Amino acid sequence: MDNLFFIEELSPLYEAVQTSSIFQDSKLFPDCTLKTTAEEILVAYSATCEREDFDLKIFVEQYFDLPPAADSSYQSEEKPIEQHLENLWIVLQRQPNADQEGLSTLLPLPYPYIVPGGRFREVYYWDSYFTMLGLRAHGRTDLIQNMVDNFAYLIEQHGFIPNGNRSYYLSRSQPPFFALMVQLLSEISGPEILLKYRHALEREYAFWMSGENEITQDAPSHRRVVLLPDGSIMNRYWDDKDTPRPEAYIEDEHIAQQSDRAPTSVYRDIRAAAESGWDFSSRWFADGQNMSTIQTTQLVPVDLNCLLYFLEKTLLQIYRQLPDRVPADVMKEKARLRKQAILNYCWDEKVGFFFDYNWTSHSKSNSWNLAAAFPLFFNIASSEQAASTAEHLKNKFLQDGGLATTLSNTGQQWDAPNGWAPLQWMTYKGLVQYGHDALANQIREHWKQLNERTYEETGKMMEKYNIQDIQVKAGGGEYPNQDGFGWTNGVYLMF
Length: 495
Hints:
- This protein is mostly helical.
- It has helices at residues 13-18, 38-48, 56-63, 81-92, 125-137, 141-158, 178-189, 192-196, 198-208, 249-258, 263-276, 302-319, 326-346, 374-377, 383-397, 421-433, 437-458, 486-494; strands at 33-34, 64-65, 93-94, 113-114, 221-222, 225-227, 233-235, 299-300, 347-348, 353-354, 357-358, 363-364, 398-399, 402-403, 418-419, 465-466.
- It has a three-stranded antiparallel β-sheet. Strands 8-11-12 form a three-stranded antiparallel β-sheet.
């Protein structure tokens, strides 16, 4: 940790750049590499910034190497899509990067890895599971192994898996898919893989459950854990910082200015939504429309708790291989209680659908979204609950290009009319699990055809797609639609 460089070390230059709009993308400056030490740069900045002829952009270019512009030129319209995707693994692969240590926000990793593409120049946590599905389809077990080992390394170094391998992501994680990655590897390489990653899985679980023994009915939340009135412990998304995100500094300031809440509270909820991977969606907004009402930390997300249930079940599987019965008994009970809590708090009997739960107002969220498919994927729902969920998915969410993420069109990228590969996959698999094959195959075909059509027209695989009007490019959010794209490639190959 001693050699880590944090962009905030460059204050007040850091704030000056991020509020100046000299770069279109707020992520660009935090991704720069220093040409000399932060101390020397700040001395030079202090000596020159007051001069009349001072030019901030020229100064930055003098003292920093800017990251290469996202290369959107790679196309292969002439090649079949399968061959294009096989070639893309080479384009999206990055090598270990210890040479930038201390001069860049990039966290070094010991093994090669796959990045999503576009402006995303580092590995991302939950993206990587869906990327691994594609690597498996192409027989690239070597890269799957490397990526699992990289995540185990991050857990060993930092106690958890950060959002991505950047120092500015070290205050938050992303949806905990590591147990699914380990299970995927164990399906390929054998069940002993589970024991190999036991300690990494335990440490990730400890990270998400930090504070579970300190919460009380008077103080019912601590970091990512929440105590509910009946004694159930569930999880929420969180971030340990309450300042603007370095990679979206000016955007976060604007949102805080529009809110009537304390800026620190708004920043925390923005960051917590970034931990969810759904950045951003009306799912997290109190009024269902405006980001200034963001309330992420007040919600117990159904998908997060399903993922942690699976982590508990994976640890239970490991503990059953040990001679000591106690850890297995403890984890079995934790998983049972979590499943019960998901069904008690997130299932709405009246409408027959799963929702997030607002633990501060003691009420279910009214955001209809695809997180409702996670209890099906993880086999938590009853067959009646799955049938009702499937009916709503068919009638409300299914469009010409696949499933919409939510039913609200707010201009946020994780809302209608956009569809995203990971949620198509989780929903598809969940429906297959309960025998709703016809609907599952309909979703698969709609999504595949949209991917293929876009590829034929552009030679690219996109980060997200407009599933309502398949003639129109997807949009919304803080940055343009990216091409590449790790998880889209992986899900397409599985489909």
